[in-house]
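Here is a protein:
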Amino acid sequence: MDRKQKKTLCLILYILIFAVTSAPVFCGYVMDGGDSVMWLHRIREFRESLAGGTVLWFPTPESVTAFNSQSMSFDSGIWLLPAVALQMLGVGEQMSYCILTGLIGIATLGAAYWMMKAFFDNRVTVLFGVLFYMSCPYRIYICYDRADLGQSIVWALMPLLVGGLARLRADWGSKVLYGFAAAASYAGIWYADARWGVIIGGCTVLYLILWERKPVGLVFMAAGAALSMPAIIYLARYTIKGGMEVWDLPSGSIMGRGYTLGHFFTNWTYRPDMPGLGIALAAAFLLLIWLYWAGYGVKMQKAVKGLLISAGVMTIMSLKFFPWDYVQRIGGPFLRFVGILETPGVFWMLANMAFTIPAAWSIGEIRKKEEPLWQWAVPAMLMLIALATALYLCNSLTYMRLPLGQFPVDDLAY
């Protein structure tokens, strides 16, 4: 197979990855369940505010309490502008929502490709990194099960941040260009979901200081924070001063919603709001253990190893036994901020994002062996498993949930 044929095959596989991991988008309607109704209302509310000559950047307390969606209180409406523009051009509400969701999926795939290229030169390793990122059960849960547009956009922007910072570390090309990409993506995360701006900012700064020890990344992180100052002020006003009682924001313990060890390894169905690694990422995890046991750990790049350690730390933070109650007792701002996280599972989501890079590294290493079993059979099996799991999760939602606004004719009797 020549170089041109390999490129064509990779392009076909990328299209297949997008099609399988975005199956609900092609239904042509919005599925009932999750927060889809709330987001449709927010798009409509944002459009009406523009028609009235104002800009409603954040949701009103009436919207938050009506849909019991307190976790969306700090999601800016700026990322809803494409759907609003489509509706103003005459596109229906549900179709504009589907188009927006599809655009987020395309952006996520492109950003994941850009991120993996910052770590790996091999075409197949990059392909598997994108596959692991797109087919991650937690991403599918966020995008289609929970239908959280804010966190879906975080999944699309996180690779741009990581890829930009990785290129700064490697001294590739223009540092200003890559730094701008990192700063812009970090600002976009703040506007998508301000809670994630705090979590990702804090984890990234600690990683840069303790592991990379290169201050240039901190400069661009600060630039991204400066660009997102309206969202920072909006969140800080609540966490520091309190108030916003009308929103009925949560401030209770989140430990009870944390993970136990068994939840991490669920593959197909999962408990509500607790998706696991899935078979493909779990298999990559076992491959990593085997490679370390066989002495391959010394070959792992410093940045990839740092992300693997970071994923482990964040996994611990997602456990139901992690003492978040004690963190909340430090003071009022900690009490309020931890409360609006609602679940320690947010750190498991971040751990999944970080782990896709070491998982891709494991595929790259086993393909260096001369045996066909390791070069082709194992990677092909993992690709089929990843796509099959993603298709199962997506199709389960389309079969189990009715189109928005429709009701079952009769209940099933067994």
In short: The CA atoms of residues 87 and 402 lie 23 Å apart.
